[in-house]
Give the backbone structure.
Amino acid sequence: MFVKLSRAMLSACAILTLAGTLAFSSPEVRAQHSSMPPNARVYFIWPQDGQVVGSKFWVRMGLSGAGVAPAGVEYPNTGHHHLLIDTDLPSLTEAIPHDKNHLHFGAGQTEAQLELPPGTHTLQLLLGDAAHFPHDPPLMSKKITITVRS
């Protein structure tokens, strides 16, 4: 899998992710989960459920009723995107994992180019707060299924 980001964006993302992780890793600081307005929703702009895509494709992430803020930045009614690929939702009471199935967009990105192997894949968005924790209640998209052609 491949996410295409510029070198500057990668550096900024790494710094913001580290800052958010360090700033909010203690249990005392994370005692309260962030909330979102009841009308907020996160969704895929592209691709759509059932879409057939090439091996390299853009994912465009939408958010309404709330705002996007980078990791480490605490501002009311904001969060940043996490893209779950071929996996179920993680624990909704712990920080969202950071691995090949849980992509973090801690610099506030709303789109990314992915490269997936041919076959059927699932995608789901989960909004995280400044410290990569799901909001309470969690703000997630519908899980979609796409087919990557060779």
About this structure: Residues 4-31 have pLDDT under 50 and may be disordered. The first strand starts at residue 2 and ends at 4. The beta strands are 2-4, 41-46, 52-53, 56-64, 67-68, 78-85, 102-104, 111-115, 119-128, 144-148. The helical segments are 7-23.
